[in-house]
Design goal:
Elements (H helix, E strand, L loop, with lengths): L5 H9 L2 H18 L7 H15 L11 H17 L9 H18 L2 H5 L2 H23 L3 H4 L10 H42 L7
Length: 209
């Protein structure tokens, strides 16, 4: 069974409720020292107040369950990074690498909103298929062509393989940005609701969201 390192345990305790409460009471002890309350026993007072705070503060809640949304988004993110590791300048032209990088940023941002994404099966399907099927299929078909062939047009009206790939990447980018916009609407609505609350609460705040 994997165990955390001493450094990880120290960092975890530093941000814990017990440490924060202890530090707050210790700071109160330091303030008492400045007012001459603690006298020569100030180190004991400060340390004691820290100990009382750390002892009485409730332990941080342990969260062991992982939602389905988190599991799915983590796996999709891992699959995306695995794919991106194969997209480099040796296999693809610079403009293709740049387009794929831009697509990846949109996908990463969508995946950060796991709950909103997985609450919409249609959106989840588009993101999942883009990462696991649409994007790798387009890139794989292009990578299997000789570079000189991929850049050459076969006829006046026919796109080269390079142009065809860029067009497919543009289609994916357009669709993913629609998904992203839909996902962001929840955050936007929350912001508007907060604006209405502040206007009702404080009145004349000048917020017009």
């Amino acid at each position: 069974m994997a165990t955390s390192s001493p450094r990880e345990r120290i960092l975890a305790y530093a941000g814990s409720t017990k440490n924060i409460t202890g530090c707050a009471l210790a700071l109160a002890g330091v303030i008492l020292v400045f007012f001459g309350v603690a006298g020569s026993f100030w180190p004991v007072v400060v340390a004691g107040l820290y100990g009382v705070g750390a002892l009485l503060a409730p332990a941080d809640r342990v969260r062991l369950t992982i939602s389905h949304a988190e599991v799915e988004s983590r796996q999709l993110h891992a699959d995306l990074e695995t794919l991106l590791a194969k997209v480099d300048g040796n296999r693809f032209p610079g403009d293709v690498v740049a387009r794929v990088g831009a697509l990846a940023e949109v996908l990463r941002d969508i995946l950060r909103r796991a709950d909103a994404l997985t609450s919409s099966p249609d959106h989840l399907h588009i993101v999942s298929q883009t990462i696991r099927d649409y994007l790798p299929s387009s890139l794989e078909a292009y990578a299997n062509l000789p570079r000189s062939y991929a850049l050459t047009r076969r006829g006046e009206r026919e796109r080269s393989a390079h142009e065809e790939l860029l067009a497919q990447l543009d289609l994916l980018d357009t669709q993913l940005r629609k998904v992203a916009e839909s996902v962001y609407q929840g955050d936007e609505q929350a912001l508007r609701d907060q604006g209405r609350f502040l206007q009702d609460r404080f009145g004349g705040s000048g917020l017009d969201l």
